[in-house]
Design brief:
alpha+beta, Outer Surface Protein A, domain 3, 2 domains, four-stranded antiparallel sheet, three-stranded antiparallel sheet, 13 strands, 19% helix
């Protein structure tokens, strides 16, 4: 049995999980609402304050889907109850980040022009610049997949390079550094 798939999902107070006849799971909570279609073969049940995903057979396909859908539904429950936050830092001389509104991000990354990103309405962005520290970008959302995708797109604008470490990185991310040229001896 799948170690992840057999774990029950605890439903916090204020969160409801609804399953319709087409196995479309809707999770509502204080922070929002998320939906996820689930394979029609999977068995979805609510048992005394927890939600359980079961598989009908021991086929390889069902085993693969068992843990996947349990994790997706658990991420939805955590998202609508607590939310997700990702922090990023912009490292480099002259690199800047500025939030204009809830989902507009303007970046100065050493290009000849500023880079403007318009994020989906489900993701809110904040930018913080303090003197003497690297600018920080904070993304918050209820959808874990969407926030990760947006963070990856922002990071792809200027990924950290290994010689000086300049670029956009996740907070706490370790960049493998390389030695430059040895120079004249």
């Amino acid at each position: 049995m799948s170690r992840i798939g057999k774990l029950p999902i605890t439903i916090p107070s204020g969160v409801t999980i609804d399953v319709d006849k087409n196995n479309l799971v809707t999770v509502k909570g204080p922070k929002g609402e998320l939906t996820q279609p689930v394979d029609p073969d999977m068995i979805l049940e609510t048992e005394d304050g927890s939600f359980v995903v079961k598989r009908p057979t021991e086929q390889k396909r069902h085993k693969a889907l068992h843990g996947l859908y349990r994790t997706l539904i658990n991420n939805m429950v955590v998202g609508v109850s607590e939310g997700y936050t990702l922090e990023m830092e912009v490292v480099g001389v002259g690199y800047k980040a500025e939030a204009k509104g809830k989902n507009h991000l303007e970046l100065a990354l050493g290009f000849s022009h500023p880079v403007v990103m318009i994020l989906p309405p489900e993701v809110t962005v904040e930018a913080e610049t303090k003197r003497g520290t690297n600018p920080k970008i904070v993304l918050t959302s209820v959808d874990k997949q969407l926030i990760g995708q947006m963070a990856a797109k922002i990071r792809a604008l200027r990924p950290p390079e290994p010689y000086k470490g300049k670029g956009i990185r996740f907070k706490g991310e370790q960049i493998r550094r390389k030695a430059g040229k040895a120079g004249a001896k």
